[in-house]
Amino acid sequence: MRLGVMGGTFDPIHHGHLVAASEVQARFGLDEVVFVPTGQPWQKADRHVSAAEDRYLMTVIATASNPRFTVSRVDIERPGPTFTIDTLRDIRAERPDDELFFITGADALAEILSWKDVEHLFQLAHFVGVTRPGHELSDKGLPEDRVTLQEVPAMAISSTDCRARVAGGEPVWYLVPDGVVQYINKYHLYSGPQGGPVRVQSSGEVRGADARTLSS
Question: Which helix (H) or strand (E) holds 181?
Fold first, then answer.
C-alpha cells in the first residue's frame, strides 16, 4: 500500500489541511492518508498549544467523512517532544510493508536539513511539500527523487488566522469543518486570555530544529 502521513499541530485542523491531503492522495495514488497530531510540539514561548486530546478529537471529527483518511495517536502517546523521525519510525513499525509519503508545509520542508536525524528521513519516506501557488522552494541539498512540491490553493488558510479570528469573536465557518467549529465553541478553545486556548498543555518550541507544523 501507498500511505500518506500528514503530521502537524492541527490547532485547529482546517480545510487547507484536508484539501492538501486530498490533492496529494490523488496525485500519488495513495491508498490511505493518516493524520498524526503532534504530541508535544516545540512551540514559541509566547504561544499556547491546545491539549493534545482536543487536537486529536478535532482531527477525528474533521476526517471522519473521508474513507481514505484516518488519525493516529502515535505522537500523542509517545512521551517527550515530537520529532518527524520518531513519527516515521513508529508508522514504519506499524506498517512495515507500506510505501510512505510524508506530507508537510513547503515552508517547513525548506528547513528539513536542520531536522533531527535528517540523514535517515529520506530513507523512510518520500516528502511532499504543500504550498500556495507561486511559492518557490530552493531544493539545494534535497534529493530530487525523494522530494516533491504540490501547489494547493487552500493553503492560504492557516490555523494561526483561525485562532486569531476565534479570539477576536470572528467566525471561522467554512475555514474549518462544521464539526470543528462546534467543538471549538463547546470547549471555548482559543478564547482565553490573550486569545490563548482555555485548555492547554505546556510546551516550548525551537523553530528550525524540526518544524513539525503545517500552516499552524
Answer: helix 178-187
Q: What is the pLDDT of residues 45-99, one digit of tens each?
A: 356 889 999 999 999 999 999 999 999 999 999 998 899 999 999 999 999 999 9
Whole-Å CA distances, 141 to 27, 114, 146, 206 = 24, 11, 11, 22
Task: Give the pLDDT confidence of 34-48 residue by residue, as tens digits.
Answer: 999 998 875 443 568
CA-CA distance, 133 to 138, in Å (whole number)?
15
CA distance 146 to 74: 24
Per the DSSP assignment, residues forming a β-bridge with 50 are 200
DSSP SS3 for 90? helix
| Residue ranges in 95-177 assigned as alpha helix (H) | 106-109, 118-124, 159-167
